[in-house]
Amino acid sequence: MSDLVFRRATLHDVPAIVGLLADDRLGAQRESPDDPKVYEQAFGRVDADPGQLQVVGERQGVVLATAQVTFIPGLSRRGATRAIVEAVRVASTERGAGLGSAMMRWILDECRARGCDLVQLTSAVEREDAHRFYRNLGFVQSHAGFKYQL
Protein backbone atom coordinates (compact mmCIF):
# COMPACT_ATOMS: atom_id res chain seq x y z
CA MET A 1 0.00 0.00 0.00
CA SER A 2 2.97 2.35 0.28
CA ASP A 3 2.78 3.06 -3.45
CA LEU A 4 -0.74 4.51 -3.10
CA VAL A 5 -1.30 8.25 -3.29
CA PHE A 6 -4.52 9.91 -2.10
CA ARG A 7 -5.23 13.44 -3.26
CA ARG A 8 -7.82 15.97 -4.34
CA ALA A 9 -9.21 15.03 -7.77
CA THR A 10 -8.68 17.17 -10.86
CA LEU A 11 -10.76 17.55 -14.01
CA HIS A 12 -8.34 15.12 -15.67
CA ASP A 13 -9.52 12.41 -13.22
CA VAL A 14 -13.22 12.71 -14.08
CA PRO A 15 -13.35 9.88 -16.68
CA ALA A 16 -11.70 7.48 -14.23
CA ILE A 17 -14.01 8.57 -11.42
CA VAL A 18 -17.08 8.04 -13.60
CA GLY A 19 -15.72 4.64 -14.61
CA LEU A 20 -15.46 3.68 -10.94
CA LEU A 21 -18.96 4.95 -10.21
CA ALA A 22 -20.37 2.88 -13.08
CA ASP A 23 -18.31 -0.25 -12.24
CA ASP A 24 -20.85 -1.32 -9.69
CA ARG A 25 -24.18 -3.15 -9.73
CA LEU A 26 -26.11 -0.09 -8.54
CA GLY A 27 -23.92 2.47 -10.28
CA ALA A 28 -24.33 0.74 -13.61
CA GLN A 29 -28.04 1.63 -13.41
CA ARG A 30 -27.46 5.27 -12.42
CA GLU A 31 -24.42 6.46 -14.35
CA SER A 32 -23.98 7.42 -18.02
CA PRO A 33 -20.24 7.35 -18.81
CA ASP A 34 -21.02 8.15 -22.45
CA ASP A 35 -22.09 11.67 -21.46
CA PRO A 36 -18.83 13.23 -20.17
CA LYS A 37 -20.02 16.86 -20.30
CA VAL A 38 -22.54 16.23 -17.52
CA TYR A 39 -19.79 14.91 -15.25
CA GLU A 40 -17.31 17.63 -16.18
CA GLN A 41 -19.87 20.30 -15.31
CA ALA A 42 -20.74 18.56 -12.06
CA PHE A 43 -17.07 18.27 -11.17
CA GLY A 44 -16.67 22.01 -11.77
CA ARG A 45 -19.39 22.71 -9.20
CA VAL A 46 -17.90 20.26 -6.69
CA ASP A 47 -14.36 21.52 -7.14
CA ALA A 48 -15.38 25.18 -6.80
CA ASP A 49 -17.09 24.56 -3.46
CA PRO A 50 -14.65 24.79 -0.49
CA GLY A 51 -16.96 22.49 1.48
CA GLN A 52 -16.37 19.65 -0.98
CA LEU A 53 -13.45 17.31 -1.47
CA GLN A 54 -13.44 14.81 -4.32
CA VAL A 55 -10.74 12.28 -3.43
CA VAL A 56 -8.92 9.86 -5.67
CA GLY A 57 -6.54 7.09 -4.78
CA GLU A 58 -3.98 6.20 -7.41
CA ARG A 59 -1.09 3.86 -7.98
CA GLN A 60 1.48 4.72 -10.64
CA GLY A 61 -0.84 7.35 -12.08
CA VAL A 62 -3.86 5.02 -12.38
CA VAL A 63 -6.97 6.07 -10.41
CA LEU A 64 -8.21 3.05 -8.47
CA ALA A 65 -10.52 4.57 -5.84
CA THR A 66 -12.65 7.63 -5.20
CA ALA A 67 -14.97 9.22 -2.67
CA GLN A 68 -16.63 12.57 -2.18
CA VAL A 69 -16.47 14.29 1.22
CA THR A 70 -18.76 17.17 2.18
CA PHE A 71 -17.84 19.33 5.18
CA ILE A 72 -20.82 20.88 6.98
CA PRO A 73 -20.49 23.43 9.78
CA GLY A 74 -23.48 23.26 12.08
CA LEU A 75 -25.16 24.42 15.23
CA SER A 76 -26.02 21.02 16.67
CA ARG A 77 -23.54 19.12 18.82
CA ARG A 78 -22.28 22.43 20.20
CA GLY A 79 -21.41 23.87 16.82
CA ALA A 80 -19.75 20.74 15.48
CA THR A 81 -18.50 20.41 11.95
CA ARG A 82 -19.41 17.09 10.40
CA ALA A 83 -18.32 15.36 7.25
CA ILE A 84 -20.46 13.24 4.98
CA VAL A 85 -18.70 10.65 2.85
CA GLU A 86 -20.46 9.67 -0.36
CA ALA A 87 -19.87 7.62 -3.51
CA VAL A 88 -17.04 5.51 -2.11
CA ARG A 89 -15.74 3.26 -4.87
CA VAL A 90 -12.74 0.99 -5.34
CA ALA A 91 -11.88 -0.62 -8.66
CA SER A 92 -13.37 -4.11 -8.79
CA THR A 93 -9.91 -5.54 -9.46
CA GLU A 94 -8.63 -4.00 -6.19
CA ARG A 95 -11.45 -4.81 -3.77
CA GLY A 96 -10.42 -6.74 -0.68
CA ALA A 97 -6.76 -5.72 -0.93
CA GLY A 98 -6.88 -2.89 1.64
CA LEU A 99 -7.10 0.06 -0.72
CA GLY A 100 -10.56 1.08 0.51
CA SER A 101 -9.44 0.94 4.14
CA ALA A 102 -6.37 3.02 3.35
CA MET A 103 -8.51 5.61 1.55
CA MET A 104 -11.02 5.81 4.40
CA ARG A 105 -8.20 6.26 6.94
CA TRP A 106 -6.82 9.08 4.75
CA ILE A 107 -10.29 10.65 4.63
CA LEU A 108 -10.71 10.36 8.41
CA ASP A 109 -7.32 12.05 8.90
CA GLU A 110 -8.39 14.84 6.52
CA CYS A 111 -11.64 15.26 8.47
CA ARG A 112 -9.71 15.53 11.75
CA ALA A 113 -7.36 18.09 10.19
CA ARG A 114 -10.40 20.18 9.15
CA GLY A 115 -11.81 20.10 12.68
CA CYS A 116 -14.66 17.67 12.16
CA ASP A 117 -16.29 16.12 15.21
CA LEU A 118 -18.28 13.50 13.32
CA VAL A 119 -18.05 11.59 10.04
CA GLN A 120 -21.18 10.01 8.66
CA LEU A 121 -22.19 8.13 5.56
CA THR A 122 -25.03 6.22 4.06
CA SER A 123 -24.88 2.91 2.27
CA ALA A 124 -27.64 1.21 0.29
CA VAL A 125 -29.33 -1.47 2.39
CA GLU A 126 -28.37 -4.22 -0.06
CA ARG A 127 -24.64 -3.44 0.21
CA GLU A 128 -23.98 -5.87 3.06
CA ASP A 129 -20.27 -6.19 2.24
CA ALA A 130 -19.94 -2.40 2.45
CA HIS A 131 -21.72 -2.37 5.82
CA ARG A 132 -19.25 -4.92 7.18
CA PHE A 133 -16.37 -2.85 5.73
CA TYR A 134 -17.56 0.32 7.51
CA ARG A 135 -18.17 -1.51 10.80
CA ASN A 136 -14.63 -2.93 10.62
CA LEU A 137 -13.34 0.64 10.30
CA GLY A 138 -15.17 1.63 13.49
CA PHE A 139 -18.32 3.20 12.04
CA VAL A 140 -21.46 2.52 14.08
CA GLN A 141 -24.74 1.81 12.35
CA SER A 142 -26.70 4.16 14.59
CA HIS A 143 -29.43 5.73 12.44
CA ALA A 144 -32.01 4.85 9.83
CA GLY A 145 -31.55 6.86 6.66
CA PHE A 146 -34.17 8.32 4.37
CA LYS A 147 -33.99 9.79 0.89
CA TYR A 148 -36.51 11.71 -1.16
CA GLN A 149 -36.04 11.53 -4.91
CA LEU A 150 -36.81 14.84 -6.65
From TrEMBL:
Q: Name one GO molecular function term.
A: acyltransferase activity, transferring groups other than amino-acyl groups
Instruction: Write one Pfam family the protein is assigned to.
Output: Acetyltransf_1
Using the record's annotation, list all stretches that form the N-acetyltransferase domain.
4-150
Record-linked PROSITE patterns: GNAT
UniProt KW keywords = Acyltransferase, Transferase
What name does the UniProt record give this protein? GNAT family N-acetyltransferase
